[in-house]
Every structure is written in C-alpha cells, then in structure tokens.
Amino acid sequence: MKRLILVIILIWSTTYVATAQLKSEVSECFELTSIVFRLADVQEYVNNQLPAYTKDIDNYFAKYKDHKLISFIKEIRNKHAIGYDAVSTATTFLEIKNGKVQIKSDVGKFQISQKDNRWAEQDFKTFVGLLNDFYRKTKFRKFYTDHLDLYRIAEKRLDEVLKDFNIDWFRSLFREEVQNPIVMVSLCNGPNNYALSIPGEKERNGMVIGSGSDDKGLPYYHKNMIFIITHEFLHYYTNPLISNFWSHIEPDAQIIFPHVKEKMDKLAYGSAKTTMLEWFVNLLSIMYVRDNPTGSLSIDYLISGHQNRGFIWMERSVAFMNYFLNNRGVFKTIDDYMPQIVGLINYTAANFEQILHEFNNRHPYVVEVFPAPGSTIKPDIDTITIRFSEPMHGAQGMLPLNDQNILPIPRAAIPKWGDEDKFTLLIPVDKSKFENGKTYGFKLNKKFFQSAKTYPIKEDYTFTFNVLE
Questions:
Q1: Strands 416-417 and 424-428
Q2: Can you tell me the distance from the alpha carbon of 419 to that of 423, in angstroms, rounded to the nearest whole number?
Q3: Tell me: the pLDDT tens digits for 283-298?
Q4: Contact 121, 216 (CB under 8 A)
Q5: Which of 111, 429, 432, 439 is most buried (CB neighbours < 10 A)?
Q6: What pLDDT, on the 0 to 100 scale, is given for residue 20?
Q7: Domain 366-467 has CATH 3.40.50.10420
Q8: Bridge partner residues of 24 (DSSP)
C-alpha cells in the first residue's frame, strides 16, 4: 500500500513539474518550413537576426531556389496571403518520419482549412508533397544536424527566461488549464511570435517564439520577452472567450474597428474580430506583468505602447480590471467576468469619440516658464523653472538652439526635478557667464520629456530669453 501511494505521488509530481515550467525546443519541421518561406522571399521570414545562421541558410540552399516548392509558395502567397502564422499552423500538421515529410497520421480527421481558411486543402497537399521533395533533394537533415549546437544554445537561453514564467497565475484566473504546453523556438522567425494549437488525438497548445541575437550573433532572449510569451500563452484562454461572446461583441467591435483600422493593418490585424482578440489578450498580458513584475517593463509603458499601436482604450480597460481584482469573491475566474467585459466593449463603442479626444490630448505640455519665454531679464537669475501639465517620467534631454545661444550651466550642477511628483524642472544657470545683450535658449527634446504615463510632449519645446543690464 505504501509503495502504491509513493508511485501515485511520484506520478503526480512528474505531471506537476511537466506543466509547472515551460520548456523550449527547436523542431526540425519548424526550421524547415520557416527556411523555405525565407527562400521564397516572404517578407516576414526574411530577417537577419542571426547573421551567421541566415548566411548558412542562403549559402547552403542557394542552388535550390528554383525548386518547384519555392515558386509554389510565391503563388499561394500572392493568391491567399499565406505567411505569418499560416506557416506555423501548417507545420503543426506535419511530421518528419523515416526521412519523409508527411501529414501526421493522427490528424486525419482534422482539416487545415478549419484551422486557417487561408489554406485550401488541395494547396496544402501540394505543399506537403513539394516540401517532402525539397527535404530529400537538399539533404535538409544534414543542414539541421550541422546546426544542433546552435539550436541547443537557443533552447538553453530561452529556458532561462521561461523558468520565471508563473503558470500558477493562469490557474488562478481560468477554469481550464493548458495541458503539456509546448514552446517552439524558431531561429528564422525573427521578431515574430505565434500561438499554436497542435491537432491530434491529444491536442497540445503553446507558441512559436522568434529569436534575437547578442553581440556575438548568438540567440538571445531578454527577460522582457515574458510579456510576449504570456501574450501567446494567453491566446489559448482568451480566443475561446471572445468567440463564445462574439454575437454580443460584434456590433460594437464593428463600430470601433474603422477608427483603428489603419493602425491594425500595420499589425496585420485585418478584421474587427482579430482586433478584439488581440486587445483582450494584451489586456490580460498587462495584468500578468502587474501581478508578476518582469524585467524592466512597467505598466504605464505597456499601456502607452499599446495605445500608440491603436488600442486607444487600453488605459480605460486596465482600470476596469480593478473591479475584477477587487471582487474575486463574486468573479472566481475571468470566465465569470466576461459579461462585464462585453459591457466594457459596449461602453467603449458608445463613447469612442470621447476616447479619441482623450487619446489625441494625452501629451503633457509646458504650462509655465520662468523667466517668461521671450522676455528680457537682468543677469541676476540663477534658475530657470519649467512646469508641466502633469507628473513627468523623470528623464530629460536639452538641445542647444545653435552655437551662439548656449545656456551657461554651472560645471558641477545639473537640471533636477523640484518636487516629488516631477511637475517642475529646475535648470541651474551660471549668471556670471551671461553676456549683456545676448539671447539664450534651448530645446526640450520630445523623446526624453515624457509624462509619468510615458507619453512624450507633442513637439520639441523651444525656449528663449534675452539678457540686458
């Protein structure tokens, strides 16, 4: 009996460890598909994040660029916009077995067109046949094994980031749990990352993560990537929630989408539904960082960044999630809170003109300066005071107007913020260096003068004054 209990404990412990920490892996299939899309000059796969690796790719496969697979990819790219996550979706249906690229035996009842309508079934079968021919003729396996050391470096480095990933946070917010999640690291994906749902008798979910590089050209993953990993991991939870409530959301989403379509197009989010899916997953990703401080990311930075990308109601959305956090006795999970999320979208659509006004007026601005701009002073002022409309971030950057009007600042002194909330910047000047009859001034660089919410002043601010005895 004791032995049976011990076995049960060991099984439970093994299962928990398997799901408690994400582990990355490089897949031959994913490298194969991303490489062939690079060879077909599909823009999102043509990057040189890892210069030595991409050089090896281009050199090794140069003589195969006229293979029928490459021209076929260009054809379906032009006709059906095959690219981005359509490539990773297709790859989840594939396996390499006994030296052959083939559709997995346990996905026979699944149709790729149901997963991604960009893929026609016949196009996919043609693609797989040509891909297998390319795999054999290029001896792709040799290329892959020749780079195993590089792939192991990528896995090890990404795993260092993944070890801080808090899966328990997801368990606390959602009714379901991702079983045996998978993280594919793809060295050809560059800055692009995608959620994955791998079909089969035992469906697996996870993500494919692109790769950056360090100063030696080796794979590199910053701790801030936890936000991206969270984003992709959350899709498993958030996409079904939005889909389940879509009939309630769609009318309001169609009101919102035209206002942000131009910016969404730049992000390859081409529909109202995709916009809502990405807004919601980004909102909960920000919640994750708020609950699990990560790298150098700040909540204000994340909010402003997403608003600048087009989700201009994100600040309001994050504030609205406080009601969820403060009422966990009522709302046990995000699933329980979804009627309120629907209400938030409804209110956002009904008040979008006001939200646009708020967004367009989000920039801080200078409200007063002493001495007054353009005024004439005697050479007895030792401090210039600039007050802003709201608390500032604290960084600063001043530019001279020209070589003739450089402000004399004492050698040992630097500008400083004069109050705890950083409304007021105090700039010391060396009044003994003032020249009679001369004009002095500077510019405040908009890149550096940002509000506490990380919105910059709208334009460089120019200030001048005259000195006269």
A1: antiparallel
A2: 7
A3: 999 999 999 998 889 9
A4: no
A5: 429
A6: 52
A7: no
A8: 183
